[in-house]
Amino acid sequence: MNNLKKGFSLVELLVVIAIIGILASVGVTTYSGYIESAKQGVVKSNHNSVVSYSIAELARCQLGSGSFAASEQGTNNTEIKCTEVTGTNAATSIKQYIISIAKFENPGTSETYVDAKTAAASGVLTTINETDLTKFATLEDSYCNTDAQMGNIYIFGLDQDPGTDYLQIASCVDPTGTTAAESMISSQRISVE
């Protein structure tokens, strides 16, 4: 008679479990890298959309439109006439557009953007400083150095003299970056005339 026992030995099962464990650890590492690069792609896309919208609205004002950006859609309490646009009120209006109309999703929190009261908070922060030109030249490390700031949009509005107002938009794309250039993407100064 033939008494063949069918099945796997303990050693064979342990080898299979070890192989599955190795493949799973490699897969999780690769998957988290894909997730991180996808989040960064969303931040870049949101940033480019906001910059393009800002430039288009300023160009529309130069062509004689009545009111600027989100102010015409009732999201601000007061309408900003194109003849009265400055760097500071343009920054506030663009922030309202992002929060109330565009309703982009912040990849850092997976929720729609909200008003960020400080640089450490999550969301959209408007920094208006009429005398501090350095914020336009270099972005401080405090704007993008924690995971909570990932995806944040910062809008800098500057009023200097009539005809020399500026708007600049920056986004936190990689809080682990070693320099501001690696962690932030920023638009050029957008002239508000």
Walk me through what this model shows.
This protein is an alpha+beta fold. Strands 3, 4, 5, 6 and 7 form a five-stranded mixed beta sheet that branches. Strands 1-2 form a two-stranded antiparallel sheet. The model has no long low-confidence stretch (mean pLDDT 82). It has one domain. It has helices at residues 10-62, 87-102, 134-137, 180-183, and strands spanning 105-106, 111-112, 124-128, 153-158, 165-172, 184-186, 190-192. It is 40% helix and 15% strand.
Outline the fold blueprint:
Layout (H helix, E strand, L loop, with lengths): L9 H53 L24 H16 L2 E2 L4 E2 L11 E5 L5 H4 L15 E6 L6 E8 L7 H4 E3 L3 E3 L1
Parallel strand pairs: 3-4
Antiparallel strand pairs: 1-2, 4-5, 5-6, 5-7
How many strands, what sense, and barrel or not for the largest sheet?
A: 5 strands, mixed
Shape: elongated
Rg calc: 25 Å
Overall mean pLDDT stands at 82
How many beta-strand runs? 7
Output the helix-strand order.
HHEEEHEEHEE
Give the total of domains. Answer: 1
% residues in beta strands: 15-25%
What is the terminal-to-terminal distance? Answer: 99 Å
Poorly predicted runs of 5 or more residues = none
Structural class based on helices, strands and sheet pairing: alpha+beta
